[in-house]
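Entries read chain and fold; for instance:
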Amino acid sequence: MDRRSAHVREVIPGARKAAERADGTVTRTCAPVAGAKLSGGRGTVRRTRWILALLALTVLLVACSKTAPQNTMNPQGPTAQTEKNLLVLVLWPAAAVFLVVEGGILLISIRYRHRKDRDRMPPQIHGNTRLEIGWTIAPAIVLAVIMVPTVSTIWELARQPADAMQITVEGYQWWWGFRYTDPDMTVSYGDHDAIVTADVMVIPAGRTINLSLTSLGGGARSTSGLPDHEVIHSFWAPQLFGKQDVIPGETNHIVFSADHPGLYFGQCAEFCGLQHGKMKFRIRALDETEWQRWVANEKQKALTATDGLAQQGMDLFFGTNGVGGQCIQCHGVGGTAASSTAAPNLTHLAATTHECFAGCDFETFNPDGTPNIEALKAWLRDPNAVKLGAKMPDYGLTEQQIDALVAYLYSLK
């Protein structure tokens, strides 16, 4: 341990320079020239620190909102509750370590700060074997204690019950598709394919759901015929389950259930392109009666338009009279010639449970339950004007054509 005093000379105000004396010592003069005015920089720095601290406090308070729909600390299902329990268990040791480390830094910074009346360096400590052994063993013990419940929770959440309801989650740019693959969840027409929805996943409350997650390209193909626009997403509904990657060519799983009927919000949690921030979805949990009613309706083919304006929109949608027909290149409508899977299925677009569209960027209905006609018109008028980067092109529709298409789409209940 080196306890020698430092050789310190008095600093005389002058220009910043260093000069070597005959005796080998060095005098450094760093003070400003005599008579120079001191700037107010220190006060500016102090004010800046206060402003940044207030901004950080504001952000922290906003994050603590109890009404936030995507709140991990307000679990509404067993999977989310298990994840919260583990999070809290890890937070306590992390908080203790934070307080010890940051408290030690503050204590040392204040107690051993430089003082004007001191003209020598404090004792220099170059090593402490006991201290170093202690701060090596302590973190190892903490990590070992945390590892046991963490590994146990990972294995618990990875179990896939045989009696769970099966739903395939398909991630596109930039919306979510949901395919119900159980044998009793097929439509009553055509080839009796699986029930398919977009943007809103409807589930029965209290029943275990096994999600199979994969990333698709929205039907886009490269010049070689391979799927295009396939990127990694992350599926996340904080009140029901944590994040899980959605990877092209791979299938990951989430097993969860909702304790009560209600509406739960989710979104893509991994950057996947221009509209990543607007790739949202919702999960609607229904009681048994409402669930059976929803399933019965989803099994039926799309309604045929009977209203005059809606019929015009249907003709334009399918290109019946030689005009239009671009819609069926990407969208599917159950029980019709439109069977493409490149874009959201529109069979029951206007069903009351289909509460949003276009990646849940827009509400399907107004707060009073009436159709949100203006939002759908804006989308048909120019998709990229309201969602930059959307794969749906602007077809240059006239206002009359838009009115007809809106009438037809809102007839699909």
